[in-house]
Specification:
Elements lengths: L1 H6 L20 H12 L6 H16 L10 H14 L5 H17 L6 H17 L5 H12 L10 H5 L4 H5 L7 H14 L11 H16 L8 H20 L8 H15 L53 H11 L31 H4 L35 H29 L2 H4 L3 H4 L14 H7 L3 H15 L3 H4 L15 H22 L3 H17 L9 H9 L8 H16 L5 H7 L30 H6 L12 H11 L22 H17 L1 H4 L3 H12 L4 H21 L14 H13 L2 H5 L5 H11 L4 H4 L4 H14 L5 H14 L9 H14 L5 H22 L5 H5 L2 H14 L4 H17 L2 H4 L2 H19 L4 H15 L11 H15 L3 H11 L11 H16 L13 H16 L7 H24 L13 H17 L8 H20 L2
Helix pairs in contact: 2-3, 2-4, 3-5, 4-5, 4-6, 5-7, 6-7, 7-10, 10-12, 11-12, 12-16, 13-16, 16-20, 19-20, 19-22, 20-23, 22-23, 22-24, 23-25, 25-29, 28-29, 29-32, 31-32, 31-33, 32-35, 35-38, 37-38, 38-39, 38-40, 39-40, 39-42, 40-43, 42-43, 42-45, 43-45, 43-46, 45-46, 45-47, 46-48, 47-48, ...
Length: 1171
């Protein structure tokens, strides 16, 4: 064959290569040389030393590669033999053995086992102690390689290395004259701090020693004898050491001075060598939002802030996936560390994906037109004079650099960039290791609230984002800023910017608002100036974090408009990650504090707004079937007749998302479209998922905009749920749930929406018919994907009750049958979702009077209430509460047939299950007591008369009493008080005569006087005012105890240490006053002396609160209190009339005193109201 190929070679073709020698077996040279070295015996002769020299030279010069056929144990054996052959008085040989140790361990990625480590460490430490100082750098390099990944095995040598007079402490100290030795010693310390999963970490005393040593190095200025590159490498090692301590050692920075000192050096290091900026920092940063640098020299700015320009780079470098350690070694070679192994890789900063070399030319068109003074984005351009294209490819050898100033400058700038990146990575670890409330004390040090005015305070993380020439450093700064912003909603919520503040001082709220504004301004500047796709992605993600946490309802308008207009072009960016993050940002805009009027206006903008015709963000499409090639189908045709009135302009964002989800991609997947499956005709999966999430956010926050696309979105959902990808199906189901919830909200009784603005029920019926005749039933029965099943259950539970009743009976039966079936699922996620959905359906007006459905649902829920999963039991308890609500609603209807037909045995089962559930966790307990109260309210005289009910009723009430008094979650106690009030509403129960009466009242009076939570107090006062007859309150003593407890509660209605409870004070007083007036309206002659005694002691206090009760309504969730003045007035008059008609006992003056008291109150009230 070969001959034929040669004969057919075209004339004039490329010259043929000569035959190559067969490749040598991997590791053969190492094994040959190793065998020769192992054959030698210790000999102090000149010939022996010469041979050892030659063998070591050959071993060092051998070409090795990781995994190159050399076993780790062979490396350890060779190194031990070399150490045995070389006495410590032979400096040159010791230096070569150290070089070989470093070279082999570093190149072959070997971590020495514990057995051999002891010998090698002892030899190396002794070599440092005994050999000449010129050998120390090589020996320390060997030591660094030995301790890498072996920190936990070096415990017995730590006193020699890190003790008070330890070798590394002396060699890394400021007094060390040789800068290379100092740097190598710090390198060893950093490697000792490296954590290994599953291995014990450095003991705390040694952690503190290392931390202080690293901190001192970072705080110390460069010594005169140290060159700039060595200084950079020294700082890098110190930063990586601190990062290892924070990440692996979980070191806690509890002391303010300690944390402040670290943050000060990190901020200084973040700007190390940054062209145009030189800042001086205090030794310690203190947690305060106020300026703290008064009197310090101003920052030296050499570049105008408005230009946002940086040195540019034009070489892209692709990274290949490598093992962590190999990748780390290559990164260190780039840092020019002479092939040394560094302490730890900088994790989490996406190094492999950041292109360190895109040019940054002026932009044109829409991107540059919106920001004054911004830089620009683009693809083509001329490199600047400070081109950093050579920064990344730095060889570990000095000889690889020309002596020209440009080459040295590039090398220098590269090392300085590595310091900044290390500082930012260390800062990120610091952010993750301290509490947010501590971090935000330093907000002003890292997030500026004003444009740069020449003070160090204004030099912040966004300065790096705008000015740093390295895309990787910019990405690191953005990631740190994102970490600060993440979870900052509560901190930023104090911002206030809606009015002009003209005061002698700047309020904290205004300062935070100014910070938010400045962050928006700078990130938008960075957005239009950035050309590196990976850094661009980080900018957009950072913007999304900012948008998600900013309180736009308290800020001036236009911030979101600027972000919205700037991000539009990026949804068509060539890089899929940029497109995905752009959709994430748009999702953040439509989900933050929704609905916002500003966003509502943005959603109503024309499709072309903010986009050039040549680069439109979405195709020009014509409704209603613009995204489908096939005709729209019967649903859209029928729906178009009854569509609700809406804007004539289609919503740009909805159309973009729909086209992203359903339209085929415009061209083949580019290399960056990682989410695009081979052979896929659609956009990359991450884009489609993000677009579906944006649609879900829109449906949740801006349903009035989404409702005009209801049927089109329905077909999108059907398309998604019909696909093979479970994640696309899942997001489709989530969108369906949000749309269903939006429709339900429109039809709620408290909805302020005009009827003509709602989606017509006929269209909702069409929508759900489309869903049920589509892939939704298949998703519900797809046992292979339980998460999808659960999500489909949630979606099915969001059907509008009015629409459900209008569905065909077969669709109704399908829904009910599927949910009852899924309640038996072995998957707990599915079972919980089905139990919850049944709890929704049992409230539907068309189903709640169906005795068979309610009974079937009750049995299904009771079964789920026995499940081992807490989540299933919690959902089942919630559904049981809903089911018992349905029993109460049915009881209040004129038709008694439901009560008569409902099984008494099933009621017993429900009571028993609810009693057991009331002893469960709080999540279950809160709804179990709600169910108990409803069930005891529902019981008919025919049930109560039966002997089997007597015991269960007693147990149920005891369970409620115990829950009222228990120190549980306040929601549980509130529900228990509410349930007790429901029990009191059942006239068939022997309230007042049963033994449990006094226990129930004692529990409620205890709560009303002493519970810390005022909402629980309000609910207990409401329960005490429910019994409608005097005999229900029991004996005179029982009545007196209730009356006195309510008076005491009125006195203590402002006694609280929790500021949040103060807003419920007025509601509590109103409810207590209502309960006291109710008791007065039922009082008997025997009760009057007790009432009179109380009025004599606390009459003034009661009078003032009664007058407040008459003058003002409830403020808060006091739904049980009468709100109109006429009702309150009538209550007091009724009480007065009742007391007036009571036949007082002979010689008793209480009646006259009480009548006079009430009369006086009414007189004062009428006089004050002018009637």
């Amino acid at each position: 064959m070969a001959t034929v190929q040669v004969a057919c070679s075209p004339l004039g073709g490329p010259p043929r290569e000569p035959p190559r020698e067969p490749p040598r077996e991997q590791g053969a040279g190492f094994r040959r040389l190793s065998a020769r070295l192992r054959a030698l015996r210790p000999d102090d002769s000149s010939a022996s030393r010469t041979e050892i020299h030659l063998l070591l030279d050959q071993l060092i010069s051998e070409n090795y590669s990781a995994g190159g056929g050399v076993a780790p144990e062979d490396v350890s054996t060779l190194l031990i033999q070399a150490c045995r052959l070389v006495p410590l008085n032979q400096n040159h040989l010791v230096s070569k053995v150290s070089q070989l140790t470093h070279h082999l361990l570093n190149t072959l990625q070997v971590i020495v086992d514990e057995r051999n480590l002891d010998f090698l460490l002892a030899y190396t430490i002794s070599a440092i102690q005994q050999c000449s100082s010129w050998t120390h750098v090589k020996i320390l390099q060997a030591l660094a390689a030995l301790v890498y990944g072996n920190g936990s095995r070096c415990q017995k040598y730590l006193p020699d290395l890190l003790g008070q007079s330890g070798l590394l402490m002396k060699l890394s100290g400021v007094a060390q004259s040789d800068p290379e030795v100092r740097r190598a010693a710090v390198h060893c310390m950093a490697n000792l701090c490296l954590s290994v999963p599953g291995q014990p970490y450095l003991e705390e005393p040694y952690q503190n020693i290392c931390f202080q040593a690293f901190l001192t190095i970072l705080q110390s200025p460069k010594s005169p004898e140290m060159d700039d590159i060595t200084f950079c490498m020294l700082l890098q090692n110190a930063l990586k050491g601190i990062q290892s301590l924070l990440n692996g050692g979980k070191m806690k920075l509890a002391q303010t001075e300690e944390l402040g000192a670290l943050l000060a050096v990190l901020k200084k290091s973040m700007f190390h060598g940054l062209p145009g900026i030189n800042i001086e920092m205090p030794t310690v940063l203190y947690p305060t939002p106020l300026p703290q640098y008064d009197g310090r020299p101003p920052v030296k700015l050499q570049l105008p802030e408005s230009s946002a320009s940086r040195p540019t780079m034009n070489r892209k470098k692709k990274s290949k996936t490598k093992p962590k350690k190999i990748q780390q070694e290559e990164e260190e070679e780039e840092e020019g560390s002479s092939g040394e192994r560094e302490a730890a890789p900088v994790t989490g900063l996406g190094r492999a994906n950041v292109h360190e070399g895109n040019t940054r030319p002026p932009s044109s068109g829409v991107q540059s037109s919106r920001l004054d003074g911004g830089g620009a984005a683009g693809k083509d351009g001329v490199s600047s004079p400070f081109s950093s294209s050579s920064w990344k490819r730095i060889s570990s050898s000095e000889s690889d650099y020309s002596d020209a100033e440009g080459g040295m400058q590039s090398k220098m700038r590269s090392y300085q960039a590595k310091v900044r990146q290390g500082a930012l990575a260390c800062f990120l670890s610091t952010i993750k290791s301290i509490e947010k409330k501590v971090l935000y004390g330093y907000w002003a040090a890292f997030v500026s609230d004003t444009p740069e005015l020449g003070s160090p305070q204004s030099v912040s993380l966004v300065t790096l984002t705008l000015k740093d020439p390295s895309p990787k450093t910019r990405a690191c700064a953005l990631q740190a800023l994102s970490a600060i912003l993440e979870g900052s909603k509560q901190f930023l919520s104090v911002a206030e910017d809606t009015s002009d503040h003209r005061r002698a001082f700047t309020p904290f709220s205004v300062m935070i608002a100014s910070s938010i504004r400045e962050l928006h301004r700078c990130l938008l500047l960075a957005l239009v100036a950035e050309s590196s796709s990976q850094t661009l992605t980080q900018i957009i993600k950072c913007l999304a974090n900012l948008v998600s946490n900013s309180p736009y309802n308290r800020l001036k308008l236009s911030l979101l408009t600027k972000v919205w207009n700037q991000i539009k072009p990026y949804v068509r960016h060539k890089d899929v990650n940029v497109r995905v993050s752009s959709l994430t940002l748009l999702g953040a805009i439509v989900s933050t504090h929704a609905p916002l009027p500003e966003v509502q206006l943005l959603l109503q903008q024309p499709c072309s707004s903010g986009l050039s015709n040549s680069d439109s963000a979405t195709p020009h499409l014509s409704p209603p079937d613009w995204w489908k090639k096939a005709p729209s189908g019967p649903f859209l045709e029928e729906a178009s007749v009854s569509s609700p009135p809406g804007s004539s302009e289609p919503c740009w964002l909805i159309r973009l998302c729909i086209s992203t989800v359903v339209l085929p991609k415009e061209d083949s997947c580019s290399g960056s479209d990682a989410g695009c499956a081979a052979g896929s005709t659609y956009m990359p999966s991450p884009m489609r998922l993000e677009a579906l999430q944006v649609l879900a956010h829109l449906a949740k926050g801006y349903f009035s905009v989404a409702q005009g696309y209801l049927m089109e979105l329905g077909e999108v959902i059907c398309k998604c749920m019909g696909e093979a990808d479970p994640s696309i199906q899942l997001h489709g189901a989530k969108l369906l749930e949000e749309l269903g919830t939006g429709l339900i909200q429109q039809y709620k009784p408290d909805s302020t929406l005009a009827p003509e603005q709602r989606v017509p029920v006929t269209m909702v019926v069409l929508f759900w018919t489309m869903m049920l005749s589509g892939p939704l039933p298949r998703a519900l029965q797809n046992a292979e994907h339980p998460t999808l099943q659960a999500s489909a259950c949630d979606a099915l539970s969001s059907i509008l009750p009015e629409a459900f009743s209008s569905l065909r009976s077969d669709w109704q039966i399908l829904c009910i049958t599927v949910l009852l079936g899924l309640n038996d699922s072995k998957n707990r996620l599915v079972k919980a979702a089905a139990a919850r959905a049944l709890g929704v359906y049992v409230l539907f007006p068309c189903l709640r009077q169906d005795v068979i459905f309610v009974a079937d649902t009750a049995n299904a829920i009771l079964m789920s209430l026995q499940d081992k999963s807490l989540n299933v039991r919690a959902k089942a308890a919630w559904s049981l509460g809903n089911l018992t609500d349905t029993l109460i609603v049915n009881m209040e209807t004129p038709d008694p047939s439901f009560q008569e037909e409902f099984s008494g045995l099933l009621l017993l089962k429900m009571l028993r299950s609810a009693i057991e559930a009331s002893k469960d966790k709080d999540k279950v307990k809160s709804n179990a007591v709600r169910a108990l109260g409803n069930l005891l309210h529902f019981l008919q005289p025919s049930h109560i008369e039966k002997p089997q009910f007597a015991e269960i009723i007693e147990e149920s009430i005891q369970a409620l009493i115990a829950t009222v008094l228990i120190e549980a979650a306040m929601k549980v106690r509130w529900n228990a008080c509410y349930a007790m009030g429901n029990v009191f509403k059942n006239p068939a129960l022997p309230l007042g005569t049963a033994p449990w009466t006094s226990q129930a009242y004692n529990a409620l009076t205890s709560v009303v006087t002493s519970c810390k939570n005022f909402k629980v107090r309000i609910r207990s006062a409401t329960a005490l005012s429910i019994p409608g007859k005097r005999e229900h309150y029991g004996s005179v003593d029982q009545y007196a105890q209730i009356w006195n407890a309510l008076v005491t509660a009125l006195q203590k209605s402002e006694d609280t240490t929790d500021f949040l409870e103060f807003k419920y004070c007025a509601s509590l007083r109103t409810q207590i006053c209502q309960a006291l007036v109710h008791l007065l309206s039922l009082a008997s002659a025997s009760d009057l002396p007790c009432i009179k005694e109380t009025l004599e002691l606390n009459g003034d206090m009661i009078r003032s609160y009664f007058l407040q009760f008459l003058k003002s309504g409830a403020e808060g969730d006091d739904a049980g209190a009468p709100h109109s003045p006429q009702e309150r007035d009538q209550m007091v008059r009724t009480a007065l009339e009742h007391i007036s008609t009571v036949q007082a006992l002979a010689g008793d003056t209480a009646k006259r005193a009480i009548v006079a008291f009430l009369d006086n109150i009414l007189t004062v009230y009428l006089a004050s109201s002018g009637s």
